[in-house]
């Protein structure tokens, strides 16, 4: 038995009225880009999408589709002619596959789009269901709460059967809601924040600040690997790596130690805003979560936010750490994030950062220095990498 096509059901986006075709086109592009298989054709219809496999393996496709945002669920489909014996045979092998050697309950759900077909849905359910029940042990019918549903769709050109519905990632297709800049550290939170935004349809450009020689190439590679994982959720990610050493050293010379963290974050925000302007992004996203660390109090966020009018989105603001860690595990960033390579902030973290910094004070400390040329220089020297790149170099480095 070979799957011929995959039926994809849209989630929320099927409710989005006139924007629907924008969403479906975006999803189609994301899927094509992710699958990278010329044999597979994608056809977007109003309320569902079909992938024509043309010989490609469903198992490979399944792994990737499960992560694509905007997909509610999907089902592999077998195609037969209208010959009843052929339909029965396909139904039986689908059921056996769905049972996977274990007892199960099922029901048959038939749709007859071709009204010329001699049997009606009731008779078809009976014919196919009866055949499958006779040929299988440990299978029962349960019309209310079946373990799985065997769907049979009779169309004029062919019959389509399916027994499996795989849940998708939900949300909206990446890129359908515009673009934002993600401040991506090597930590646990910011990759999760990026994922949450992508799931809402936001295209991400990531900005990472690194401070060689205080931070190693491995810390940088870790961030590249994290950004690469994010691309599996449906969009390309451009990663901007900003050299930050000079600025951090300057801050440490200029600003009293308990305010260095606040000031550092403010300069990061200014640089991120410059990159945002250049890339046409509409907002800045961070992994901040209220109360998690010294820099994440409301006073601190106010002092940091003071440098820009750009919306700063904090999707994790009210999420507990344990929940963030669970999402990180689920999306595959956790194990990369916990690798021990320090980022620029860990290394320069003061012993006692101000948890309730005052905006006027940090403005005053910064007023002794013109940061603009330093910011210009950092933006000019930024390295930009387009992801996905498919091999991880992390393995070589470890
Ligand atoms: P994370 O787990 O994301 O590293 P954190 O708990 O370490 O967050 P902070 O160090 O206060 O918290 O950082 C808050 C946010 O600032 C991060 O979530 C990230 O969005 C941004 N950020 C911190 N360091 C960097 C960096 N080196 N490059 C880019 N963004 C950063
Ligand atoms: Mg961090």
How would you characterize the overall build of this protein?
The protein is α/β, with parallel strands linked by helices and 398 residues long. The chain folds into 2 domains: 163 residues, VC0802-like; 209 residues, Rossmann fold (3-Layer(aba) Sandwich), CATH 3.40.50.620. The chain is 40% helix and 20% strand. The protein is built from 15 helices and 15 strands. The strands form 2 sheets. Strands 1, 2, 3, 4, 5, 6, 7, 8 and 9 form a 9-stranded mixed sheet that branches. It is elongated and about 85 Å long. It starts with a strand and ends with a helix. The structure holds adenosine-5'-triphosphate and magnesium ion (MG). Adenosine-5'-triphosphate binds next to helix 5, strand 11 and helix 12. Magnesium ion binds next to loops.
pLDDT < 50 stretches: 390-398
- Specify the CATH architecture of the largest domain: 3-Layer(aba) Sandwich
Count the domains. 2
* CATH fold-level assignment of the largest domain: Rossmann fold
Pathway: Cofactor biosynthesis; thiamine diphosphate biosynthesis
GO biological process, one term: thiamine biosynthetic process
EC number: 2.8.1.4
GO molecular function: ATP binding; CCA tRNA nucleotidyltransferase activity; tRNA binding; tRNA-uracil-4 sulfurtransferase activity
